[in-house]
């Protein structure tokens, strides 16, 4: 058995008989049968760049603190976490009507009832029903850490780059309260007033690019979280219902998760539940 702790599970050496049966020279067999040791701490060295000025004018500028932190964090996550992305669509036709109906109530409270605010609440309930998505992997102790709080990071596009403020105890707040807090945090991020504590402690993340465009994307898990939900722009599409095509507002969703902890079937169930909750908000009360 080859134990690869980096991936959190052993690779069973049932492949060895197949390898032995191949017509390989003895030197190759010796190499294949050598023990494997992987280290999570050592980051790959950056490859030297060519001299781009040989082909035309160039300009260099220092990376901002935000860009350096983003590059370091996502580079580490990409190198360590085996990620899978699941795609689905939610019919938000009725939800959009409700959002417009109750939008003035959120505005009166000082917020804006955006799709993200509603998705925050849906995601919080989903995380309670599917606790693996609100967990982290402790490889050093070979344990899964289940969190009994629901703190959700929301990606915000700013002139300094991507910032992810965290809304805490999302499961304990109603949609109007979440709309107000989300509006305030997004403005705080754009005004460069976020503190480090405002961006720490998330157990799940939502990234909504619907305001910009696109039909789908694959968001990257920000470890030690194990999942992230991507939201793209909703569009009116023909959907076959009761024997005829009807115009429906369909919202593309993409769920990326850590495959070391979450299986594909679990990912499909989680995302389908989110879609059904957006289509039938009554599910949130069941």
Give an overview in words.
The chain is of the alpha+beta class and 286 residues long. The protein has a single domain (82-285), classed as Chloramphenicol acetyltransferase-like domain (Chloramphenicol Acetyltransferase, 2-Layer Sandwich), CATH 3.30.559. It has seven helices and 13 strands. Strands 3, 6, 9, 10, 11, 12 and 13 form a seven-stranded mixed beta sheet that branches. A two-stranded antiparallel sheet has the order 1-2. A two-stranded antiparallel sheet has the order 4-5. β1 and β2 (9-11) form a beta hairpin.
- Helix coverage percent of residues? 25-40%
Structural class: alpha+beta
The CATH level-2 architecture is identified as 2-Layer Sandwich
Strand content: 15-25%
- Gap between N and C termini, in Å? 46 Å
Mean pLDDT: 85
Number of domains: 1
The major pleated sheet works out as: 7 strands, mixed
CATH H-level homologous superfamily name: Chloramphenicol acetyltransferase-like domain
β-strand number: 13
Question: Number of helical segments?
Answer: 7
Q: What does the overall shape look like?
A: globular
CATH class: Alpha Beta
- Compressed to H and E, one letter per element, the order equals EEHHHEHHEEEEEEHEEEEH
Radius of gyration: 23 Å
CATH topology: Chloramphenicol Acetyltransferase
Flag low-confidence runs: 1-42
């Amino acid at each position: 058995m080859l134990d690869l702790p980096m991936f959190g599970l052993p690779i069973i050496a049932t492949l060895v008989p197949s390898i032995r049966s191949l017509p390989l020279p003895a030197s190759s067999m010796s190499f294949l049968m050598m023990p494997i040791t992987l280290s999570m701490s050592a980051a790959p060295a950056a490859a030297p760049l060519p001299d781009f000025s040989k082909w035309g004018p160039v300009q260099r500028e220092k990376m901002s603190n935000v860009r350096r932190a983003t590059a370091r964090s996502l580079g580490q996550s990409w190198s360590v976490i085996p990620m899978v992305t699941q795609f689905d669509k939610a019919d938000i036709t009725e939800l959009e009507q409700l959002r417009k109906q109750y939008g003035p109530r959120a505005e009166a409270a000082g917020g804006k009832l955006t799709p993200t605010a509603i998705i925050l609440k849906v995601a919080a309930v989903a995380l309670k029903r599917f606790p693996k998505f609100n967990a982290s992997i402790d490889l050093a102790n070979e344990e899964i850490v289940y969190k009994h709080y629901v703190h959700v990071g929301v990606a915000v596009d700013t002139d300094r780059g991507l910032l992810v403020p965290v809304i805490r105890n999302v499961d304990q707040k109603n949609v109007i309260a979440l709309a107000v807090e989300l509006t305030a945090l997004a403005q705080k991020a754009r005004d460069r007033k976020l503190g480090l504590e405002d961006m720490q402690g998330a157990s799940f993340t939502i990234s909504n690019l619907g305001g910009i465009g696109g039909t789908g994307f694959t968001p990257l898990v920000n470890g030690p979280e194990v999942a992230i939900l991507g939201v793209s722009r909703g569009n009116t599409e023909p959907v076959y219902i009761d024997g005829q095509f009807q115009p429906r507002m369909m919202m593309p969703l993409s769920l990326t998760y850590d495959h070391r902890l979450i299986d594909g079937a679990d990912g499909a169930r989680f995302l389908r539940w989110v879609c059904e909750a957006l289509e039938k908000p009554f599910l949130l009360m069941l």
